[in-house]
């Protein structure tokens, strides 16, 4: 697993969101920076806490012209249930074949309760309007993710 680092060009992508509409990184970058956050599985406790923190921070993120894309290997229908249940106000993108997770370097071996499996590592990338990784968020607790992101954005 070779994770993207600051200065790397973010892979271009177009993925279906919870409304089954295509969302493209390049198009979103025209409006400002994009926060691409990878999470393992919709409707699970940690992923819900992380998503709700971003939901509740949407006005501050909007003021900074930041678009949020949450990416997981979940199918579109599950993303729709997740977004509706928790009133999420940003795009959740389906990466079922984990091609984009691979491209960002967040798909790899994980260990949980003694089991080893491949899955998404919980990382977030701030992509600048130039298409390059401006910051990698890799050390945070799910309940503090939105705070860490906002603190970085306000001091950058």
Average predicted confidence as pLDDT: 95
* Derived structural class: alpha/beta
How many structural domains can be distinguished in the coordinates?
1
Main CATH class:
Alpha Beta
Helix content: 25-40%
Poorly predicted parts: none
Rg over CA atoms: 14 Å
Percent of residues in beta strands: 25-35%
Q: Which architecture does the CATH hierarchy give at level 2?
A: 3-Layer(aba) Sandwich
The H/E string reads: EEHEHHEHEHEEEEH
Q: Which fold name corresponds to the CATH topology? A: Glutaredoxin
First-last Cα distance: 28 Å
Number of strands: 9
Envelope shape = globular
Largest sheet: 5 strands, mixed
| Count of alpha and pi helical runs | 6
CATH superfamily: Glutaredoxin
Widest beta sheet: strand line-up:
5-4-3-8-9
């Amino acid at each position: 697993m070779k994770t993207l680092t600051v200065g790397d060009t973010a892979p271009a992508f177009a993925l279906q969101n919870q409304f089954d509409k295509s969302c493209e990184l390049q198009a979103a970058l025209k409006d400002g920076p994009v926060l691409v956050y990878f999470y393992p599985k919709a409707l699970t406790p940690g992923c819900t806490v992380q998503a709700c923190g971003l939901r509740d921070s949407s006005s501050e993120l909007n003021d900074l012209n930041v678009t949020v894309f949450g990416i997981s290997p979940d199918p579109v229908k599950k993303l729709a249930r997740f977004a509706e249940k928790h009133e999420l106000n940003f795009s959740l993108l389906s990466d079922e074949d984990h091609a984009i997770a691979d491209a960002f370097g967040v798909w790899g071996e994980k260990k949980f309760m003694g089991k080893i499996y491949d899955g998404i590592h919980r990382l977030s990338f701030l992509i600048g309007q130039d298409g390059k990784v401006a910051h990698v968020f890799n050390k945070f607790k799910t309940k503090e993710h939105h705070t860490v992101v906002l603190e970085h954005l306000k001091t950058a």
